Amino acid sequence: MSTGGEARRIVAGIDGSAGSVEALRWAAREAELRGADLLVVLAWQVPVGSPYVPTVPLDAQTLEDSAKQTLEHALSEVFGAKLPDGVSAEIRQGPASAVLIEAGKEADLLIVGSRGHGGLVGALLGSVSTAIVHHAHCPVLVVREPPREG
């Protein structure tokens, strides 16, 4: 999507939720309008237990494979069978906020979804969105999940 001159890049962070898929749609439109490349990033990590939340033993390869499937599903939902030129996607291991902040270092814009819960709680950003807004090295757009029908 870049059109010569200074390379432009938009990063979209996704997790497979409806809000992140909506953020990916926004990112695709923004990248097209700006003539920017789009990097879609999904972060994954092996959960760490605590005394209050026991960890179920999980195989890292299983988690990575699940992340790949989630990424592929979101991409096909937004773009269909083939990614447009200038769009790339990858999974990265690590905490989502840290992974996306790092990916945003070379970006002109970082776009993520927000998981709204309705009412007062819905007005608040999730922990990942909050960390990104406060620590990203570029402008951040947080996209709300589309309203549910019915």
UniProtKB/TrEMBL annotation:
Domain UspA: 8-144
Domain of life of the organism encoding this protein: Bacteria
Family annotation (SUPFAM superfamilies): Adenine nucleotide alpha hydrolases-like
Transmembrane residue ranges: none
Coiled coil start-end: none
Pfam families tied to this protein: Usp (PF00582)
Family: Belongs to the universal stress protein A family.
The protein's name in its UniProt record: UspA domain-containing protein
